[in-house]
C-alpha cells in the first residue's frame, strides 16, 4: 500500500472538522486510503444492499452502531443519512469522527452542502499522480507507457494489462454509475458519446458539434457531459478571463482525468499504437493538465488552472495561478527542444507585463533533460511532479 500525496492534508483536516468528505472516481483508492489513515474507525460500505437498506429504512438505528464515528463508504447510496449525521455532530462535534466517501460528486456535494455545511471538509482523490505511480516497484518508465497505463491503483498494484481492466471498468461505470446518476435508457448511445469525447481530448468543447456527431440534442450532450464531470471521468478546463485582452476565447477545453481511460476509449490497446496515433500530443497535453490539477487538489487548491487562447490564435496550453507569478505552460510531445516552442508564451508574457502581472514560461516536453534557456524552463515529462506549480 503506497502513501498518497493527499494524506498530510487529510490528516490535518481531520483534526479540525467533525466530518471529512472524500470524493473521487470509482476505484481511485478512496476506501483503501480512509481505512489506512483512519484505521481506528469502523468501516462500512453503503454499496452492500443489506447495509444500504438498513441506512435507508432506519438511519438513526444505523448510525447508533457507531458511537465513536465511522467510515461510511459510497455515501451517495444513502444521501439522506447526512441529515441525521448533522444532529449527532451538533451534539458532539469531535474532530475527525466521521469520514464519508462518494463516487458521484454532484449528489454527494448536494447532500453534504445542505446538511454538513461548516461541519465538514471536502477533498477529492483522483487517480494516481506521477509522484504516486513511481512508488510502485514496477511502474511505467516511458512516456507512452505512462499515458497508456493511466493512474488507477489496481492496474499498477496488481500489474494488470490496462486494456483488460479498463474494459471491465467502463462496463461497470455504464451499468452502475451512469444509471445511478441519470436515467439514461440508451447506454450504447452514451458510450458512443463518451468515445467521441475522448476523440476531442484537449480540444475546445463545442456542444453543437459534439451533439451533431453523437446524434443527440444539444441539451442531451450538455447533460451527458455533466455526468462525465460528476463521476470524475472528464472535466472542463476554463479559459483565462483576465483583463489582458478583450479578444479571449471563452469556450472551455475538454480533458480527461486519466489518460489510460482516454486511450482505451480511443481504441489504443498497445504502447506501439501511441507512436503513430494522431492524438498522441493531445493525450499528452491532457496528462500534463491532469497532473497539475492532481497536485493542486492534493494541497487543497481547486481553482487557478486555465488555458489561454485569443481570437487571433495566440495560445498557451495551461495557465497556473501561482503565488508569485502566473505559469504559462506549453506542452510538446517531442523529445528534442526547439526554441520555437516558447514563442507563444513569450508573447502572452508581454500582455501580462502591460498590466504589471508577473508571468513565467514553462515547456513540458517528451524528452529527458531539464534546461533553462532565455528565461524559459524546459521540463521533462517525468519531472512534472518536482516542479513548484504553486509558487
Compact overview of the structure:
The protein has 391 residues and is of the alpha/beta class. It contains 17 helices and 13 strands.
Task: Please give a structural write-up.
It is a single chain. A hairpin with a 5-residue loop joins strand 8 and strand 9. The longest helix is centred in the middle third of the chain and has 20 residues, at 162-181. The mean pLDDT is 93. The two termini are 30 Å apart. The chain has a six-stranded mixed sheet with strand order 8-9-10-11-13-12, sandwiched between helices. A five-stranded parallel sheet has the order 2-3-4-1-5, with helices on both faces. It is of the alpha/beta class and 391 residues long. Among the domains are: 7-124, P-loop containing nucleotide triphosphate hydrolases (Rossmann fold, 3-Layer(aba) Sandwich), CATH 3.40.50; 130-245 and 253-278, no CATH class. It is built from 17 helices and 13 strands. It has helices at 7-14, 30-37, 49-57, 59-64, 81-91, 105-115, 130-133, 143-149, 153-157, 162-181, 187-198, 207-214, 218-230, 259-265, 271-276, 280-298, 343-354; strands at 19-23, 43-45, 70-73, 98-102, 120-124, 234-237, 253-256, 305-309, 315-321, 326-332, 359-365, 371-373, 376-380.
DSSP helix fraction: 40-55%
Radius of gyration: 22 Å
Give the N-terminus to C-terminus distance in angstroms: 30 Å
Which strand order does the major sheet show? 8-9-10-11-13-12
Low-confidence stretches: none
Question: What distinguishing features does this structure have?
Answer:
Rossmann fold, 17 helices, single chain, 13 strands, 391 residues
Amino acid at each position: 500500500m503506497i502513501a498518497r500525496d493527499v494524506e498530510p492534508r487529510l490528516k490535518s483536516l481531520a483534526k479540525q472538522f467533525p466530518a471529512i468528505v472524500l470524493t473521487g472516481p470509482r476505484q481511485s483508492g478512496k476506501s483503501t486510503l480512509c481505512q489506512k489513515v483512519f484505521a481506528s474507525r469502523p468501516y462500512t460500505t453503503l454499496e452492500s444492499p443489506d447495509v444500504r437498506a438498513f441506512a435507508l429504512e432506519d438511519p438513526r438505528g444505523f448510525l447508533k452502531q457507531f458511537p465513536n464515528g465511522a467510515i461510511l463508504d459510497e455515501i451517495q447510496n444513502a444521501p439522506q443519512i447526512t441529515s441525521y449525521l448533522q444532529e449527532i455532530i451538533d451534539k458532539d462535534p469531535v474532530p475527525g469522527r466521521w469520514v464519508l466517501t462518494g463516487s458521484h460528486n454532484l449528489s454527494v456535494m448536494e447532500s453534504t452542502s445542505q446538511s454538513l455545511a461548516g461541519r465538514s471538509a471536502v477533498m477529492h482523490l483522483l487517480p494516481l499522480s506521477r509522484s504516486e505511480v513511481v512508488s510502485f516497484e514496477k511502474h511505467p518508465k516511458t512516456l507512452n507507457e505512462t499515458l497508456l497505463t493511466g493512474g488507477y491503483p489496481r492496474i499498477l498494484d496488481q500489474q494488470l494489462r490496462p486494456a483488460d481492466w479498463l474494459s471491465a471498468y467502463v462496463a461497470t461505470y455504464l451499468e452502475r454509475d451512469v444509471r445511478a446518476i441519470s436515467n439514461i435508457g440508451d447506454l450504447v448511445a452514451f458510450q458512443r458519446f463518451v468515445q467521441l469525447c475522448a476523440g476531442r481530448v484537449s480540444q475546445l468543447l463545442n456542444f453543437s458539434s459534439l451533439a451533431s456527431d453523437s446524434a443527440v440534442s444539444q441539451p442531451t450532450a450538455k447533460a451527458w457531459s455533466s455526468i462525465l464531470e460528476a463521476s470524475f471521468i472528464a472535466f472542463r478546463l476554463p479559459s483565462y478571463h483576465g483583463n489582458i485582452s478583450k479578444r479571449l476565447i471563452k469556450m472551455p477545453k475538454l480533458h480527461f482525468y486519466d489518460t489510460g481511460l482516454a486511450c482505451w476509449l480511443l481504441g489504443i490497446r498497445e504502447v506501439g499504437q501511441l507512436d503513430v496515433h494522431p492524438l498522441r500530443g493531445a493525450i499528452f497535453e491532457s496528462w500534463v493538465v491532469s497532473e497539475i490539477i492532481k497536485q493542486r487538489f492534493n494541497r487543497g487548491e481547486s481553482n487557478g488552472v486555465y488555458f489561454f487562447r485569443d481570437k487571433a490564435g495566440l495560445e498557451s496550453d495551461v495557465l497556473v495561478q501561482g503565488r508569485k507569478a502566473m505559469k504559462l505552460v506549453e506542452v510538446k510531445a517531442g523529445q528534442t527542444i526547439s526554441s520555437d516552442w516558447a514563442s507563444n508564451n513569450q508573447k502572452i508574457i508581454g500582455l501580462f507585463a502591460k498590466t504589471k502581472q508577473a508571468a513565467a514560461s514553462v515547456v513540458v516536453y517528451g524528452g529527458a533533460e531539464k534546461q533553462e534557456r532565455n528565461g524559459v524552463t524546459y521540463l521533462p515529462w517525468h519531472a512534472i511532479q518536482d516542479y513548484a506549480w504553486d509558487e
